[in-house]
Automatic annotation (TrEMBL):
Name recorded for this polypeptide: Glycosyltransferase involved in cell wall biosynthesis
InterPro entries found in the cross-reference section: Glyco_trans_1, Glyco_trans_4-like_N, Glycosyltransferase_grp1
Domain Glycosyltransferase subfamily 4-like N-terminal: 52-157
Organism: Aeribacillus alveayuensis
Domain Glycosyl transferase family: 174-346
Superkingdom classification of source: Bacteria
SUPFAM superfamilies reported for this sequence: UDP-Glycosyltransferase/glycogen phosphorylase (SSF53756)
Pfam families linked to this entry: Glyco_transf_4, Glycos_transf_1
Length: 365
């Protein structure tokens, strides 16, 4: 079976985590013996170059779709790929489309994304199969677009157990990152963009810092990420006098994230996006033994079991996040160890080797 994989996000050396879930699904299909021909876009910051690359990308999609013979056209991100695929469908009525929807496809993050919604709806209605990352997102998609198509759930390529695992010695992770072993660490890994909750975390840390909780408990916070709000982030860190609390890393390759997740005690996932279709970073942290304190929203509800493998807090609530951080650090060492074990147990369900059969089944049927 020959598959045409189409995605406007794909990892590169300069942006190793950009669309990594697309590569994860590609690897599963290749390992299963499918032939995959990909047409993808790498991250580009220059607006003019980005526009030119999108134009070439769209032309490639249409040209390949007309000239080459594929059994399935597999699309990641409906909003950004709807136009060329819908045009291709008009030119080739027999086109078999599998569409994998994510975050802003269904829940636009900014007003400018609303204009894509009519095309998203049309593409999903023309798709033979619609793939969603979580049960939460499946219900959202079905309800919003009133779909009668076949909808499948597959968790964004899953957790790579060769990369995300708990090390036998936490000290090795601390040394790799040049971190002081005398501190306790909270982790955050995400883009510094609207809705990712980095600002909610900083406001919570300010409150904890003002109350001397951070100093009394020897806590530092590792924040990994870059994005459009980087200047706002840096300004807020300075205004809140958190320079000695925050350790900021830019975007890191996945192997380095293994060290981050193994160095921290707990992972914070304060997203406010109703379109948070899964939240793979939370599962990757869990796979490394870090419980997650996450927003009660989106795909996080699929895997965070409150009080068992982490804590859920009221979305957007600074006070509730403060309380849940305090609650975690009030636990006994035995309770923390049990929470860590439960986090790993839940992440096990999402490991590539345990979910790849589902993706293979979707494509074989």
């Amino acid at each position: 079976m020959k598959i045409h994989l189409i995605a406007n996000m794909y990892p590169s050396q300069s942006a190793p985590n950009y669309g990594v879930f697309v590569k994860n699904t590609e690897d599963i299909l290749l390992d299963a013996g499918f032939k995959v021909d990909r047409t993808v876009l790498l991250k580009e910051k220059n607006k003019v170059l980005k526009l030119i690359k999108y134009l070439i990308y769209f032309l490639k999609i249409i040209w390949k779709g007309l000239i080459k013979k594929y059994d399935i056209t597999y699309v990641h991100y409906a909003s950004h790929n709807a136009l060329p695929i819908l045009l291709l469908k008009k030119l080739n009525k027999n086109l078999v489309i599998y569409t994998n929807v994510h975050g802003s496809d269904v829940v636009p993050e900014v007003p400018s994304q609303e204009k894509y919604q009519p095309y998203v709806k049309k593409l999903l209605n023309h798709s033979n199969v619609v793939i969603t990352p979580s049960k939460y997102y499946e219900e959202l998609v079905r309800r919003k677009y009133n779909l009668e198509n076949r909808i499948e759930v597959f968790p964004s390529g899953g957790v790579n157990s060769k990369t995300f695992y708990q090390r036998e010695d936490k000290q090795s992770a601390l040394e790799e990152l040049n971190l002081d072993r005398h501190y306790q660490y909270i982790g955050y890994v995400s883009r510094l963009d609207v809705g990712k909750g980095w600002d909610i975390l900083l406001k919570s840390l300010k409150k904890l810092n003002d109350e001397q909780f951070i100093k009394k408990n020897n806590i530092k916070v590792i924040m990994v990420g870059d994005g459009k709000d980087k200047e706002k982030f840096e300004k807020m860190v300075s205004e809140y006098k958190l320079e000695n609390v925050i350790i900021h890393f830019p975007l890191l390759p996945q192997q380095k994230l293994n060290a981050i997740y193994n160095a921290i005690d707990v992972f914070c996932f304060p997203t406010t996006r109703t379109g948070e279709s899964l939240g793979l970073v939370g599962l990757e942290a869990m796979a490394c033994g870090a419980p997650v304190i996450g927003s009660s929203i989106g795909g996080l509800l699929d895997y965070i079991i409150d009080g068992t493998n982490g804590f859920l807090f009221q979305t957007g609530s600074i006070d509730d996040l403060v309380n849940k951080i305090k609650l975690y650090y009030s636990l006994s060492e035995d309770q923390k160890r049990k929470m860590c074990d439960e986090a790993k147990r839940k992440a096990e369900e999402y490991k590539v080797e345990n979910i790849k059969g589902k993706l293979i089944e979707i494509f074989q049927s």
